[in-house]
Inverse folding.
């Protein structure tokens, strides 16, 4: 963005409802005001329109169960579904958007064991790999058990719901908050471990 731009911020534990991208003020570029009333934004015409076509649009399908940040959306061809995470305190299940019927469906998707605070996800060789930041004990959404989980990289078999931690430390040093990941063609996983 061209200088001088500003955005209201939420500081000191106080939430400012204008702390959003559309709340950004760019006085030197009046065209930025178009963002405030837009329902669909393409930042790079040359690449985006090759994928989306010349007239991209979107259609409202359904409300989600929690009006929070949604993370780690992964399309799973074997299920013809999208599995994603709701990064909200107290939400211990993922969501699954089924695409098999004439209309998409939305349901809770609980893994075994349950996983909390999934931030990034990728499909590789039929498995979903998750960057998981949650590292505090939490109540199981399906039983009276307490789930003990460490931040790390987890592997999910989306057809069975079975999850396993494949990496949660670096030579004995616990990860802080894995946030996103990518997997290259050889299966090597690269991920961020944010410091909050």
């Amino acid at each position: 963005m061209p200088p001088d731009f500003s955005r209201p911020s939420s500081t000191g534990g106080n939430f400012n409802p204008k702390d959003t991208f559309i709340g950004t003020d760019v006085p030197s570029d009046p065209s930025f005001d178009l963002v405030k009333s837009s329902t669909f934004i393409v930042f790079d015409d040359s690449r985006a329109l090759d994928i989306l076509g010349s007239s991209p649009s979107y259609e409202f399908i359904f409300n989600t169960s929690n009006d929070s940040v949604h993370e780690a959306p992964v399309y799973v061809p074997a299920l013809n579904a999208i599995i994603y995470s709701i990064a909200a305190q107290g939400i211990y299940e993922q969501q699954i958007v089924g695409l098999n019927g004439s209309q998409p469906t939305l349901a809770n998707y609980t893994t075994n064991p349950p996983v909390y605070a999934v931030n990034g996800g990728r499909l590789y060789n039929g498995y979903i790999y998750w960057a998981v930041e949650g590292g505090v004990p939490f109540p199981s959404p399906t039983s009276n058990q307490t789930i003990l989980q460490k931040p790390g990289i987890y592997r999910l078999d989306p057809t069975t719901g079975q999850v396993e931690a494949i990496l949660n430390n670096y030579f004995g040093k616990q990860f802080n908050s894995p946030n996103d990941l990518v997997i290259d063609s050889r299966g090597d996983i690269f991920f961020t471990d944010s410091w909050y």
The chain has two helices and 14 strands. The mean pLDDT is 87. The first helix runs from residue 33 to 36. The radius of gyration is 19 Å.
